[in-house]
Amino acid sequence: MSRGVVVTGLGAVTPLGSGAARFWARLCAGRSGVGPITLFDAGAFPVRIAGEVTGLTPPPEIDRKRVRRLDRYALFGVAAALQAWRDAGVEAHDPWQAGIVLGSSHGGESTAIQAAAALGPRPSPKAASPLVIPRMLNNMAAAQAAMLLDLRGPGFALASACATGGHALGEASEIIRRGDAEVMVAGAAEACITPLTLAGDHALGALSRRNAEPHRACRPFDRDRDGFVLAEGAAALVLEEREHARRRGARVYAELSGYGATTDAVHETRPDPTGAAAAWAISRALEKSGTGPREVDAVFAHAAGTRAGDAAEARALGTSLGAALGGIPVTAVKSMTGHMFAASGAAQAVAAVKAIEAGAVPPTINCGRIDVTEIACVPGEVLRKPLSRALSNSFGFGGHNAALLFSAAAS
Fold this sequence. Notes:
The chain is α/β, with parallel strands linked by helices and 411 residues long. The chain is built from 13 helices and 16 strands. It has helices at 20-28, 64-68, 72-88, 109-119, 132-136, 140-149, 164-177, 195-203, 242-247, 276-289, 307-321, 334-337, 344-358, and strands at 5-14, 17-18, 35-36, 49-50, 98-103, 155-156, 183-190, 233-241, 254-263, 298-300, 329-331, 360-361, 376-377, 383-384, 389-396, 400-407. A hairpin with a 2-residue loop joins strand 1 and strand 2. The longest helix has 17 residues, at 72-88. The chain is globular and about 65 Å long. The two termini are 18 Å apart.
């Protein structure tokens, strides 16, 4: 018997707010979470804007002692995991049948920067805290969440740059399909709004410089786009084997019915301009879910707002969806959140699942003059329409590609 994988819990910590419901409401309202950087003095930088998480109150499970043991990224990740677990209503579980895949690209970057500064020009071991290593490891969000939730099945972090969240969900679903767990928490977390990453991405020429108009800076598919906007956050979903969810009477948001993963193998930072490998990932997700191109009701695009990336994704969608593409609404969540790197794919997945539940596709803001003519971008206002299937794409530096197909749960 096929082991289906369903989504029963959602958690989000984003520049648009904390909690999946608030995140979704602000997406549909076309709100931007981008503003001036406040985490450090960015006055000397050509780019001074980002999508920061503000006002997060740690859940009661994360006491003051544990907060001190968590880097900012891990705090976001654990908070999102706890939200998703609570939303799923898991009151009792077999810990050996429950696991977690919670990834991060940069991990505890701020901890590493602070620790390196503390060592000074004449390094001494006395300058290092015993918490430095556990705080900077990119598996620590997964480890800390597993401790709090008693998840003793498969558990790890993965890192594939901006494809991390998509890969985490896909690999967690495969763990359930092969019978190694009944329940998995899956997602990703990132907190790299630091001088190091800001300087590095600026050096690559990847960032928007619209400092005077931060809310208009991220412009996926728009003719006037000038790069992505650095952002932070986390998102997590609870995935369950279909019959396990049914037996405990869980509310089911949607089914994660297809997953495809490929690698461009072309360049460290630039996507393959043909979009061939990304197209193959999308096609594999459709094939594994038994979905034809004309059955896709919406696309949640990676669409970070770079010219090369947007163009390559449009070609990938054209190759994989063919003539059906022109009739499928395409939206870009990053136009509102900025680019949360590893967490972006997980946040997109939350949005795709909520879209199926609500029968609505959030808009792509700042997209008034579309220059990628092969897609039907959703500009301006939320699009109300019944959705049975939604595709979510995540593409990362190094050429890593992940595609997820979510389907409405069978009644």
